[in-house]
Amino acid sequence: MTTHSLFDNRVSKDLGVSIPILQAPMGWIARSQLASAVSRSGACGIIETSSGELDAVKEEMRIMKDLGLPFGVNIAQAFVRDPSIAEFVIDQGVKFVTTSAGSPTKYTGVLKGAGLTVYHVVPTLQAALKAVEAGVDGLVVEGGEGGGFKSPTPVSTMVLLPLIRDHVDVPIIAAGGISDGRTMAAAFALGAEGVQMGTQMLSCAESPVHMNWKEAILNARETDTVFLNQRHSPALRALRTDRSERLANMEENIFGEFGDPQKLYFGGDMNAAVALSGLFIAPADYQQGEAFRIIYVHVPSAWLSLFAYSILFFSAIISLIWRIKVFEIIAISSAKIGALFTFLALVTGAVWGKPMWGTWWVWDARLTSELILFFIYISIILLYNSFDDYRKGAKAANILAIIGFINIPIIHFSVEWWNTLHQGPSVMKFSSPSIAYEMLYPLIFTSIGFTFYFITALLLSARNILIKREYKSSWVQSI
Q1: Parts of the chain with a pLDDT under 70
Q2: 300 with 410, same domain?
Q3: Scanning 41, 162, 317, 475, which has the fewest C-beta atoms within 10 Å of its C-beta?
Q4: Is 285 a domain residue?
Q5: Both 110 and 255 in a single domain?
């Protein structure tokens, strides 16, 4: 029996190869040097997008196309925030795509509508059923033995693979713990029609990573991996090193100490140093690098845009019911300062979004509702100033402010109610914060500082308005 006839199944046909082995989409590593070697051997090389370096990724795809080799692309949704990533992949002429680290409903329809074959990576039966319902062509069933990012509640390939096979009819690629012919045969016996390999590919001669890492893999024992960050998401499995041993028992989210992966991958430093510098003590983000530091302006500004409106709302109610002039003044002062912080949140969000999402603006639920808040603030200010009688202007503005408050819960819950590019809550949620404490504490300090600034600016603004209104009063003239 020939190799071709032995592996003539649905996966090999979907991949367009003679051997149904898929190379794992490792960030920065899964590029043309490794992918072309895999594809030349009769298997399927994969080009990654998780690095976010889409210009470089486009060039890697061009190289693969020029070589005339079959290949696929992975869209790691948690790491690629560009809203046009599906169109980007389609435009490169790719025929096979795996999606991972996100909802299968997000890109499956668009990709399949363009004629691409789509497999989704799943760590549980529930995720598999959701992916099949979304219309994927196949599944990559990934057990907890695999390296890299994982579910915080891992299930072994031996358990997960036959469980999912019993519930779905689509072709399955097995991943996690697959390293040779025997483990591939075992996966086939459990219901797979193909396998995905990562660590094995990582340590091969054609892999671009530093020899120190390859040798560490080859010299590792069966107990030389550790499962990290299990109390948070995502968790990950890593090679046992001094660094990973130290992080293994951390209660906090470890990603503040993830370090610089490229120093490990290509520099060979198996214990790459933690970057404990910046604004002022926060380390760089493990994936976003230094660009994430705008969080220390963006998040406090966004928080104060909502807090200022809450002050405005309650002041407007008190002013309308009890007609207390001081609260009229506090209301309009809050509107002016709130508009400033909302504008700042929108601008810093756009600056942050450009490198992370690949665009300055998208009509995302969170961004759109925040923009509506800005227009509400401006409308309140204009309405207040459109009356010669400031008491009438204040009354009209306060009524609008009360009506506009409906937008505040929409802003807060938009990331939970709708499928958005904007990340969900990281700090203010019922469970423990998902942001590393090395980043959380500076964020809290800057938020407190911004809040004190808001209070100071509010009091000064209210004082100035009050003096302007009462400039004929004896108490003002005595100042």
Answers
A1: 1-6, 81, 229, 232-234, 252-260, 268-292, 356-357, 419-439, 476, 479
A2: yes
A3: 475
A4: no
A5: no
Residues 465 and 317 in one domain: yes
Same domain, 133 and 261: no
Same domain, yes or no: 300 and 370: yes
Strands (E) located in 19-127: 21-23, 45-47, 71-76, 96-100, 117-122
Please say which residue of 208, 237, 257 terminates a domain. 208
pLDDT at 274: 23
Q: What is the per-residue pLDDT for 396? A: 95
Q: How many CB atoms lie within 10 A of CB 253?
A: 22
216-258 pLDDT, tens per residue?
A: 777 777 777 777 767 766 677 877 777 777 777 777 666 656 6
pLDDT of residue 420: 64
> Do 14 and 138 meet the contact criterion of CB atoms below 8 Å apart?
yes
pLDDT of 419 reads: 65
Distance set, CA 442 to CA 250, 281, 306, 342, 435 (Å): 19, 7, 21, 21, 11
Residues contacting residue 229 through CB under 8 Å, at least 6 positions apart? 152, 235, 236, 247, 250, 253, 254, 255
Full-model pTM? 0.58
Name 100's bridge partners: 76
Task: Report the candidate in 222, 127, 216 with the shortest Cα–Cα distance to residue 177.
Answer: 222
The H or E element containing residue 353 is: helix 325-357
247 and 343 inside one domain: no
Under 8 Å between Cβ of 338 and 305 = yes
Residues 6+ apart with CB under 8 A from 173: 11, 20, 22, 119, 138, 139, 140, 141, 192, 193, 194, 195, 196
